[in-house]
Write a structure and sequence with these properties.
Shape: globular
Strand content: under 5%
Order of helices and strands: HHHHHHHHHHEHEHHHHHHHHHHHHHHH
Distance between the termini: 62 Å
Structural class: mainly alpha
Number of helices: 26
Strand order of the largest sheet: 1-2
């Protein structure tokens, strides 16, 4: 990206673009990889699901932890993984862990559908039988030992499978197109994706200097976690009067209450989590500073203006003592959701209107690749249209052909491309990227459709950033087009054929759906869900059900959507793009600003500090070594932190599992 990150000539994009697309690369999907897939599905997945039922937390393992364990065990056994095999293990960890909750999502949706808040708000009467079984059947299910063997689940599960299959095909086609636009043509950096590849290459090559850097960084991560997270957690029972907690007890310094009488409504917080600072090492200062300015403008200046002019709705008037997280949540909920939608629309429409060449070049490049035996543009287009149109027709059928079909077409076809475009562009220039909030909900509300069945259709997760379950979605695509694009970049760097990537993707979906089905049924056979055997389902699901019902009413009535704020966001985004593109020649700063606004002040501030220290201090002190080892430094610290977090998680599991003991 010119003006943000210098363009660099990539070894993987020489004459004809991508060598890994062709047939010459080594095979990556080997028997060892398949064996590790099975280990993850049937050994690690039960831990993921059990931890969720205990604490409502997800991803008990960092994606890098299994890869590190597999690599080191294989090295001791003198059966080293290649970098291609390790890449396959790393890139598909999100798939494996995400699908562990696939079938538990049906049970939770059934609980939400017939909970007291759902009945109070009148939601239960709108629950379609193809989403969860009717209430009379649902009550009887608690007397069965194997819940999903009941025929009442046949239709909900079958529909979810159909939508999942179409979502995966859409993700692959859109991901490939996004890869051609932002990797091959625009040559964006994708810093976090490159950091992951650096660790994979180091573990595979066993190069001494790189390996020492990685493990030394792990020690730093372990020490930082020990001081800032692990020990405060261990001591929390004494420091907090015997209160048992799951999260980190001390997260940072919240200055918001001290600003209440000086600048009412202004929010500011500094976090102590070292990972938030370390991640800033991956991005240049101009990106980090832009992120912070955008978040500061919204949550410090903007929330103060909202408070000063008393724009808060009647049911949520500002009062002293809210704290940073309360202010960020409520300003986002009542005002900035609409603003983000407008900004995101501007971030895609205006750049393509000003300069459509990257998109057209990407299609031409796809055509040239198809002539050389790779994936053709026509095949990708046909795949995307077939899956998106099939999804549109199925969703239309579920509404009795009553919902405006043109809205579904715009949402599924245009909205999926739009959301994937924004997510991939943001991931290309920032650390974690961003997404478009509540796109699905906005389209349904603006359609004027009054029936409630459309809200329960499991459209792709990329169309909504609403919390799982709030919009009736029983599944989520764990990769999405943006992640597919980044994975293809990583595949190019390590030399993995794209065919192997796609094959592994489909294989892992099948394996992990089977695993989720078996594991969820086993847990239900031990004790129904919710029950005292799974503490969070007793203590937390009632609260989650209330939040779910409240959110349903908010989106059904359009309470979250403010047309004026959407228009304001679009105008501000267009103006910002014009200023940064023509004056600074940095067209992606608008995407950076949206990402920073979404992440909030604590993460934006810490990434800014990390970026400035890295580029202005460490890089000058280390010289050429900085560019060679910065990715290993970041991934090593993340790995060290993940090791300690895994230990903390195991302690939590042991402590919470004592719920069932008779003493």
């Amino acid at each position: 990206m010119e003006g943000v990150e210098p363009r660099r000539k990539r070894e993987v994009h020489e004459d004809g673009r991508v060598r890994a697309m062709t047939q010459g690369a080594e095979k990556a999907l080997t028997a060892k990889v398949v064996l590790m897939f099975l280990f993850t599905a049937f050994v690690l997945q039960p831990l993921v699901l059990y931890y969720y039922l205990l604490t409502n937390s997800f991803y008990i393992f960092s994606y890098w932890i299994p890869v590190l364990i597999f690599a080191e065990v294989a090295s001791l056994a003198r059966a080293d993984f290649t970098n291609k095999e390790l890449f396959m293990l790393l890139v598909f960890q999100p798939v494996a862990f995400s699908y562990s909750l696939f079938f538990i999502g049906f049970i939770r949706n059934m609980y939400f559908a017939y909970s007291e808040p759902s009945k109070y708000f009148g939601i239960s009467q709108h629950i379609p039988s193809w989403w969860v079984p009717p209430e009379s059947i649902a009550q009887a299910l608690y007397g069965e030992r194997w819940i999903f063997f009941n025929p009442a689940w046949a239709l909900p599960v079958a529909l979810s499978f159909m939508f999942l299959a179409m979502t995966v095909l859409m993700d692959l086609s859109l991901g490939y197109l996004s890869y051609m636009i932002f990797v091959v043509e625009e040559k964006l950096e994708f810093p976090f994706a490159r950091a992951s590849v650096a660790m994979v290459n180091t573990l595979a090559s066993r190069e001494p200097n790189a390996l020492r850097t990685l493990f030394a960084s792990m020690v730093i991560g372990i020490v930082l976690n020990l001081v800032l997270k692990f020990l405060p957690y261990i001591l929390s029972a004494f420091l907090l009067g015997g209160t048992f907690i799951v999260g980190t007890p001390f997260y940072g310094y919240d200055f918001t209450p001290y600003l209440d009488y000086i600048l009412p409504g202004a929010a500011f917080m500094i976090v102590t989590d070292p990972l938030s600072y370390v991640s800033g090492l991956l991005i240049p200062p101009v990106v980090a500073v832009t992120q912070f300015i955008a978040s500061f403008a919204l949550y410090f200046v903007g929330s103060h203006v909202v408070t000063r002019f008393d724009l808060w709705p009647a049911e949520s008037k500002w009062t002293t003592g809210w704290g940073y997280w309360t202010l960020q949540f409520r300003t986002t909920l009542y005002f900035y959701v609409s603003l983000f939608i407008g900004l995101s629309l501007a971030a895609m429409i205006v750049p393509l209107a000003v300069n459509p060449r990257p998109l057209t070049r990407a299609f031409r490049a796809l055509g040239r690749i198809g002539e050389k035996g790779g994936v053709s543009a026509n095949l990708l287009l046909a795949l995307f249209l077939a899956s998106s149109l099939s999804m549109t027709l199925l969703a239309w059928y579920l509404t009795g052909f009553q919902f405006p079909v043109y809205v579904l077409l715009l949402l599924v076809v245009g909205g999926s491309f739009f959301a994937t475009y924004i997510a991939t562009a943001s991931a290309g220039v920032t650390v974690f990227g961003t997404s478009v909030p509540y796109l699905r909900e906005l389209a349904i509300y603006l359609s004027g459709y009054t029936n409630r069945d459309i809200w329960f259709v499991p459209l792709p997760a990329v169309l909504s950033s609403a919390p799982l379950g709030t919009t009736g979605v029983a599944l989520a695509s764990p990769l999405g087009g943006s992640s597919v694009a980044q994975a293809l970049l990583q595949a190019d760097i390590v030399g993995v054929r794209h065919r192997d990537f796609v094959t592994a993707y489909f294989l892992l979906i099948v394996v992990n759906l089977l695993s989720s089905f078996v594991i969820t049924n086993v847990f239900w056979n031990i004790a129904p869900i919710p029950s005292s055997a799974y503490p969070y389902t007793i203590t937390g699901w009632p609260v989650d059900a209330l939040n779910w019902a409240r959110m349903q009413m908010w989106v059904w009535t359009g309470y979250l959507f403010r047309p004026t704020w959407i228009a304001l966001g679009f105008a501000a985004g267009a103006a910002l793009f014009a200023a940064t593109n023509f004056a600074l020649r940095a067209p992606y700063l608008l995407i950076v600003a949206i990402t920073g606004a979404g992440m909030g002040i604590p993460w934006a501030f810490s990434q800014m500090i990390g970026s400035i220290v890295g580029r202005r201090v460490l890089s000058r002190a280390l010289g050429d070594k900085w560019g060679a080892y910065v990715y290993l430094l970041v991934t090593g610290i993340f790995l060290g932190d993940a090791v300690m977090e895994m230990l903390r998680v195991l302690l939590i599991i042991m402590a919470r599992a004592q719920w069932l003991l008779p003493f």
